[in-house]
Amino acid sequence: MKGTEALALALLRSADRCYAVPGYPVSEIAARAGAVITVNEKVALEYALGDSLSGRRAAVAVKHVGLNACADPLVHATAQGLRAGVVVVAGDDVRPIASDVAQDSRYYGEVARVPVLEPDGETLGPAVEAAFEASEAFSRVAIVRVTPDLLDADVPDTPVARRGREGSLADPGLTMAGRAKAADRRTAAMFAWSRSSPLNRVVGGMPRVVTVYPPPADPDALARVRETGRPFLREHRLLTPPEPAGEPERFSSRGFSRTLCRDCPFHPAFAVLRERGMRAVCDAGCAILAMNPPYRVGIATYGLGSSVAVAATGPGVALTGDYALLHSGLNALIDVYERKLPLLCIVLANNRMGMTGGHPVPDILRYIAWANPVVCAADDTATLRRALVLPQDGPRTVVIEGACPEGENHETVEYRDL
Hints:
It is a single chain. This protein is α/β, with parallel strands linked by helices. It folds into two domains: 3-235, Rossmann fold (3-Layer(aba) Sandwich); 255-414, Rossmann fold (3-Layer(aba) Sandwich). 36% of the residues lie in helices and 17% in strands. It has helices spanning 3-14, 27-32, 41-53, 64-69, 71-80, 107-112, 124-138, 148-152, 176-196, 219-223, 232-235, 251-254, 267-275, 307-313, 322-339, 365-368, 381-387; strands at 17-20, 36-37, 58-63, 86-91, 116-117, 142-146, 201-203, 206-208, 211-213, 256-259, 280-282, 298-300, 317-321, 344-349, 374-377, 396-401, 411-414. The strands form four sheets. It has a seven-stranded mixed sheet with strand order 2-1-3-4-6-5-9, sandwiched between helices. Helix 17 (381-387) links the parallel strand 15 and strand 16 (396-401). The longest helix is centred in the middle third of the chain and has 21 residues, at 176-196. The radius of gyration is 22 Å and the shape is globular.
């Protein structure tokens, strides 16, 4: 069979769901795997991360330029973690034949500190399952890089048994700096995984490297590898594992955490979520403070504008800000409404960038009127209680309007384990 068919079969065996944005050379893979077509690649990866939170493995098929759109959640997931495996299949149009630029997706392994596998025809099926296993072992997204030559080649069907394991979200007791250091420790463990992988072998006296990031072999062997695209392995043949010193920083050792401003208008909304035991995916911005005491309603955060799509396939509640929605969440909201997914999207509308200096933001209602949002004042507790419920059929958007108190900053409070 052709590589395209073998790859699609491998995805069907190893993944529970598949998303894609068609484009050469992945369009046929997406069709054969029955992938859900999304509005853009970032939304596709965010849906996959939401599935991961729900315990479902998910694959995303994109062409090389589409991987660029995935960069923000791809990088964030390395520090924030995941549960079930998430694999991005990146189709590199290396010549390029049907693209406006040539690109080598292996370099995202270094940028995002994620496992990258580049199978040949004999290892295509096993490499897909190995990518999911690596994603779960190191609690981050994994990338499988393929090229047209592989997809057009005749390859054997090499099915492998699915061996799912559970990844983990970042320890909620860690600060963001602590999460980054903990992620570095797992990155160091990735080097041992790559070096011991049975997918790497010698054929006809020449090394064949499948686990291309982290590089698996000694420098002399990597210098002899025949590569498609840029000399990634030769450039990285001297790479060594990170050596993070000291323990990852914890709130308990630091002694404090941050929460909303003392007179923040959104305290009542956070209180309703906590009272009802509702868990939310948080956006970057003030919404991220829902992960800290005293509210602790946030499960995870995967970057600015990410909460809508992640929550739609995850816990069903997105906590975002008006700027985050305008920044890149609108694409996801459109896709969610088109697919009629059950989602409660809570928008904290203060007409400013709350985390970056209070710069003004356009009125969000002008841009989401089509969603027929419920609009309420931040201090209207009765309306908040009626509106902040999980919808049973399709999405609901609730815009909570409030004005930030002038001259106040996020409070720093003594941290206490609860």
